């Protein structure tokens, strides 16, 4: 992962490579050809639908594209990025319609953007411009029902390594809550590498174990140091359930139709924060926005993970495969998968192996990009029977040919920091059998 973990920093590097708006001004003096698409009539609807979520003031993209005046200087960059299929950022290799959250342009829309740029990028008739989309201020999925915030701002030094920090936010819920969406909003994206949000509460239902990770591969090296904000020991006896995550490129986590996250009353959110310094003293105060479900009887959506923490990537090796697997202890619906490595990861593959031995690919990410951490949400969820396994394979480039490689001369193992590596998969699932009343505590699931 990058020294600057934010997508903003990564995208600014792209801008530097593509050129500045002033340089693009030379491009803007090309004569406008006849019968080419215009911004007002043809381009703006595409941008409003596919790009404005990020390319607007206050969001992760470094430039807004909401107006002609804002978009025009970047016409050449838009043409090249769209033509090379770098934008919109989407890395799964699957037919259109496989995932709910696809960021894909149709061939017709791509051709329109390219023709507009090649034809002089005309504005067109302002009367043809559709209404500018409106967005809730500060939140991607609308104003949350509840906003919870770190108790105090965390102050970061200008330089050095920061170990994982832990912060705790009491919910004060007096009854169980069904949550439809969870959005994590860093106060300072440039220094927030990732956030894992756990829920600590006394169970009021008996959740049975679902995931059986391969224990041989699931160990990770012991951390020798602790941050300034360590974990609270008074909560360690309460079950820890992963609820939501944030990393560069992630979006608001919305439960699929008919499902919701269930939070017991009286619980506390535990935030695992990974910060990276950026050369100047700064601070962060991350927020969590929660929207409650209005569905009458949702299925419980659960989040988990499975990993390989015992690998070694030999120095200089450009193609190292690392696998991890998880077995299902009961019939399960799998809603989504999230592949995660650091800067040496280059591609992923996931296979479902049924109890009878039949194997099929369920997710392929041939061009993994750390700057876009994506939960791939299946449009048709996977029905996984008891005894089946999901096997993940990640490939790494630890050679000098990988321009993002922090040190191609070093063997690399699992680690928290950007110059180390991970083989991690997040998974969203629902057991087919609903939980029973009671307070039995299941074994901790990864």
Strand percentage, roughly? 25-35%
Q: Roughly how many Å apart are the termini?
A: 22 Å
The total count of helices amounts to 7
How much helical structure, as a percent, in the residues? 10-25%
**Structural class computed from helices and strand pairing:** alpha+beta
Molecular structure report:
- Helix content is 14%, strand content 31%.
- It has 446 residues and is α+β, with helices and mostly antiparallel strands.
- Strands 1, 4, 9, 10, 13 and 14 form a 6-stranded mixed sheet that branches. Strands 7-17-22-19-20 form a 5-stranded antiparallel sheet.
- The longest helix has 12 residues, at 7-18.
- The protein starts with 6 loop residues before the first helix and ends in a 9-residue tail after the last strand.
- The model is unreliable at 1-29 and 440-446 (pLDDT under 50).
Please describe the structure with a list of short key phrases separated by commas or semicolons.
alpha+beta, 446 residues, disordered C terminus
Please summarize what this structure is.
Helix content is 14%, strand content 31%. It is of the alpha+beta class.
Secondary structure elements and their pairing?
Layout lengths: L6 H12 L2 H8 L10 H12 L17 H4 L3 H9 L23 H12 L27 E4 L4 E3 L8 E6 L6 E9 L6 E9 L4 E2 L4 E3 L1 H4 L21 E7 L6 E2 L4 E5 L4 E8 L6 E3 L2 E6 L6 E2 L1 E6 L4 E2 L6 E9 L3 E9 L4 E9 L5 E7 L10 E9 L4 E8 L15 E2 L10 E8 L4 E2 L9
């Amino acid at each position: 992962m990058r020294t600057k973990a934010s997508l903003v920093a990564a995208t600014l590097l792209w801008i530097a490579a593509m050129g500045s708006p002033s340089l693009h001004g030379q491009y803007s003096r090309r004569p406008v050809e006849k019968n080419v698409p215009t911004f007002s009539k043809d381009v703006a609807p595409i941008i409003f639908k596919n790009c404005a979520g990020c390319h607007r003031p206050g969001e992760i993209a470094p430039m807004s594209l909401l107006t002609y005046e804002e978009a025009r200087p970047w016409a050449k960059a838009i043409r090249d990025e769209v033509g090379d299929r770098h934008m919109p950022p989407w890395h799964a290799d699957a037919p259109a319609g496989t995932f709910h959250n696809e960021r894909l342009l149709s061939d017709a829309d791509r051709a329109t953007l390219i023709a507009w740029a090649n034809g002089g990028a005309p504005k067109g008739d302002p009367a043809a411009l559709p209404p500018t989309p409106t967005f809730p201020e500060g939140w991607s999925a609308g104003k949350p029902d509840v906003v919870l915030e770190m108790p105090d701002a965390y102050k970061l030094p200008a330089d050095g390594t920061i170990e994982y920090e832990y912060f705790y936010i009491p919910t004060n819920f007096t009854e169980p809550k069904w949550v439809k969406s969870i959005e994590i909003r860093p106060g300072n994206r440039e220094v927030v590498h990732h956030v894992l949000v756990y829920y600590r509460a006394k169970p009021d239902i008996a959740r049975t174990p679902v995931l059986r990770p391969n224990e041989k591969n699931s160990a990770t090296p012991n951390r020798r140091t602790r941050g300034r904000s360590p974990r609270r020991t008074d909560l360690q006896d309460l079950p820890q359930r992963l609820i939501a995550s944030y990393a560069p490129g992630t979006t608001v986590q919305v439960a699929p139709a008919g499902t919701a996250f269930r939070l017991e009353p009286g619980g506390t959110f535990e935030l695992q924060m990974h910060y990276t310094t950026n050369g100047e003293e700064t601070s962060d105060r991350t927020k969590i926005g929660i929207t409650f479900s209005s569905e009458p009887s949702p299925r419980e959506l659960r989040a988990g993970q499975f990993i390989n923490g015992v690998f070694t990537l030999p120095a200089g090796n450009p193609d190292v495969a690392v696998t991890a697997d998880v077995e299902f202890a009961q019939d399960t619906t799998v809603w989504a998968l999230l592949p995660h490595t650091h800067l040496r990861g280059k591609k992923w593959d996931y296979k479902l192996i049924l109890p009878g031995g039949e194997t099929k690919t369920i997710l392929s990410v041939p061009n993994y990009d750390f700057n876009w951490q994506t939960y791939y949400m299946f449009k048709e969820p996977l029905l996984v029977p008891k005894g089946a396994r999901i096997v993940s394979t990640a490939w790494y480039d630890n050679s000098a040919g990988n321009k993002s490689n922090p040190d191609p001369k070093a063997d690399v193992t699992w680690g928290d920091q950007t110059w180390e590596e991970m083989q991690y998969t997040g998974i969203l699932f629902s057991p087919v059998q609903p939980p029973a009343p009671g307070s039995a505590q299941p074994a901790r699931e990864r």
